[in-house]
Design goal:
Strand content: 5-15%
CATH superfamily of the largest domain: Crotonobetainyl-coa:carnitine coa-transferase, domain 1
Radius of gyration: 25 Å
Number of helices: 17
Number of domains: 2
Largest sheet: 6 strands, parallel
Structural class: alpha/beta
CATH class of the largest domain: Alpha Beta
Order of helices and strands: EHEEEHEHEHHEHHHEHHEEHHHHEHEEHH
CATH architecture of the largest domain: 3-Layer(aba) Sandwich
CATH topology of the largest domain: Rossmann fold
Helix content: 25-40%
Length: 397
């Protein structure tokens, strides 16, 4: 028998939309969980319609809904709610990311579903959490990037103008945090703790992520405030004659190495010999740094990288996502998976990021079309003889 993913045997009911919940449950699907995605008839998950798309299949939906089965159900109809409740009873985990109170008004909140399933792990994802003055705010990714500190952290150092990350970073950070929280709750259940309501806000996830390394003055309240809160705030790319790169000279050996690589002297000055001295003598350190940036601008990428690597300075070229799949290292490690999708055509996704030694994770079936598995899932619930009537009533599609 072939090895199975670490979450084989776990069933997840995905009631979420857009990016946060769908990406979290896609990671669980990679790891072997069976994921059934409930979508609204007609329009489905809004993520189907966001960004680049081919034949009605968006790249966002394709990436965040791999390995799932889709059933189109109108949860506002009594019969539709009954179907969702039946699916929940047969599931280990339910994930939803609507504003606080929405699922409760539908009769599909945690307290509603746990009545028939005490061991259910019910996950509520929201923008600002279930309480507080902002609990009811609509909170898309940019709103949380703004409030949670991402935009300020990325601000232009010259003008102070906030800069948003050009991706749904808040959504994705929350998805990763949610996936970890779900497996933790399942482990706790396995150890006898039973089911529970897991609540995670995008704000909590983003602030936790940011505070780890980019809020130094906000963590150490007695700091003198002379350094930027993020210790990588001053890092900037190296410009070469034919491209761009980055070097990260953190240790004393790195600093001396990057100076030697670019033929810059002064690094042996006692005032910059150690990281503590470089912090103390910032003006002199900055002068040396500017000299090696000027030297780098006169070198080709290949020459500069060779010199930096010879000095064992952490470095890398800046690669466009379009070029990454053809990079020799990406090819050597099998970083991407190419396959054909029945609607979108030829597609490429990164493999599952974690390599499990004995329970391998892998990308599941391509993202489903809307309601692709409605009949199949209803038959599993014992409703095969009612499918046509439910469809005629607009309850399923």
């Amino acid at each position: 028998m072939s090895a199975r993913g670490p979450l084989h045997g776990i069933r997840v009911l995905d009631l979420s939309i857009a990016a946060t919940g769908p990406l979290a449950t896609a990671l669980l699907a990679d790891q072997g969980a069976e994921v059934i995605k409930v979508e609204r008839p007609g329009i489905g998950d809004i993520g189907r319609w966001v960004g680049v798309a081919v034949n009605g299949m968006s790249a966002l939906f394709l990436a965040c809904n791999r390995g799932k089965r889709s059933i189109a159900v109108d949860a506002h109809a009594d019969a539709g709610r009954d179907i969702v409740r039946a699916l929940a009873r047969a599931s280990d985990v339910v994930v939803q990311n609507f504003r606080p109170g929405v699922m409760e008004r539908l009769g599909l909140g945690y307290d509603d579903l746990r009545v028939d399933h005490e061991d259910l792990v019910y996950v509520s994802l929201s923008g600002f959490g279930p309480v507080g003055p902002y609990a009811d705010k609509s909170a898309y990714d940019t709103v949380i990037q703004a409030y949670g500190g991402f935009a300020s952290n990325q601000a232009d150092p010259e003008t102070g103008e906030p800069v948003f990350l050009r991706q749904t970073a808040a959504d994705k950070v929350t998805a990763l945090t949610a996936a970890q929280a779900i497996t933790a709750a399942l482990l706790a259940r396995e150890r006898g703790a039973g089911g529970q309501h897991v609540q995670l806000s995008m704000l909590d996830a983003v602030v936790s992520f940011l505070w780890a390394d980019a809020a130094g003055n906000e963590v150490l309240l007695d700091s003198d405030g002379t350094q930027a809160s993020s210790f990588v705030a001053t890092f900037r790319p190296l410009r070469f004659t034919d491209g761009w790169g980055i070097a990260t000279p953190t240790s004393d050996a790195d600093f001396a190495g990057i100076c030697r690589a670019f033929g810059v002297d002064g690094y042996d000055d006692a005032r910059v010999a150690t990281i503590a001295q470089r912090v103390q003598h910032r003006k002199l350190t900055t002068e040396i740094v500017e000299r090696y940036y000027e030297a780098a601008a006169k070198m080709s990428t290949a020459v500069a990288m060779a010199r930096l690597e010879a000095e064992r300075v952490p470095c890398g070229v800046i690669v466009d996502p379009a070029d990454l799949p053809d990079d020799p290292h990406a090819r050597a490690i099998g970083l991407f998976v190419d396959r054909d999708h029945p609607a979108a055509g030829h597609t490429r996704l990164p493999r599952h990021p974690t390599q499990f030694g004995s329970t391998p994770a892998e990308l599941g079936a391509p993202a489903p079309t809307l309601g692709e598995h409605t009949d199949e899932v209803l038959a599993e619930l014992g409703l095969a003889d009612r499918v046509e009537a439910l469809r005629a009533a607009g309850v399923v599609a």
